[in-house]
């Protein structure tokens, strides 16, 4: 794997850290800007709003900018947003800074996924993308706990300063390690939007919103489930969340090779097993060991289906995969909001703290139904082939096609 993938993984590490570290510092932030903890919780929504709006907006604005330059611009915006978060003197300005921090999130992942897929032979594209995603999962093991501890000990502003420093390091790594990738002659916002009109892209995004909504229905209420039902102390929940990150990392490691070998079957099996694991968690949550084992499986399976969804969208968007890949992360954040809302509804209705697991299982099954529908409708001869090489670089494209021809042929038949 090229060293450039490490730079992309570092970007993902910074994004994962800033996205989730706010949740662990809400009491400190609330005290620092003079609001209640529930009111400070709106900062999480502010970041999600930035992701949902920024992914298609910034990808469209940068549709003609070469990928490396666009990555550097987006990384710079990421640094500015987190620096502004650290310096914000009031809640209103902090809210705006968190929206700003979220704006480049989806575009960075979308452009990064396209760049990663073009760094390697076609039969290793999914492995390259999953390598980038490893930065996000490692953030849940290292970045978020470290940032939370830093913020609790020195003050919440230092956590955002640390994230900004990670952003600067990522900017330098991208500048030094990522090669130039020119845009094709058909690049532009109209071309990207036309690709978004593909019904398979729409089905893929719907699969992400519904299927991942099942995961977030449980993840949003994981801490109260563990404390109220499993009997885990508040001080131990950080370790459990780190274990959750380990599960996500394991799922990401196997997602790449499986997706390269058989894209749609990996997605089908992943969603099926996720629904089973979420349903099983309803019964396992009252016992410590079964709960932790099932929770690790849920984390691994949620990560397992991330890569095939990303690669499917890039394939179906044909030669304009960037906006589709970026919009996938808008879909994840919509899933976060929708899953948390539905999980909260059943808890408020008096069904108990474990009830979101059943909602999650139902949503995962609904996502599976959408994925299967897409597979049935998909009868194109290039249904699982992701565009890897730049159309302006025919010699490079021809060389990689020769290298990967047997594997690509086999991959296409496996994903039928």
TrEMBL record:
TM regions (residue ranges): 42-63, 70-97, 103-121, 133-152, 158-180, 201-223, 235-255, 267-285, 291-313, 334-353, 359-377
Topology within the bilayer: Multi-pass membrane protein
Region (Disordered) location: 386-416
PROSITE patterns: MFS
Record keywords: Cell membrane, Membrane, Transmembrane, Transmembrane helix
Pfam families membership: MFS_1
Superkingdom of the organism of origin: Bacteria
Subcellular location per the Swiss-Prot or TrEMBL entry: Cell membrane
InterPro entries (UniProt xref): MFS (IPR011701), MFS_dom (IPR020846), MFS_Efflux_Transporters (IPR050189), MFS_trans_sf (IPR036259)
Bias type Polar residues, positions: 407-416
Domain Major facilitator superfamily (MFS) profile: 4-379
Basic and acidic residues: bias regions: 392-401
Family annotation (CDD domains): MFS_NepI_like
Stated name of the protein: MFS transporter
Protein's organism: Streptomyces chiangmaiensis
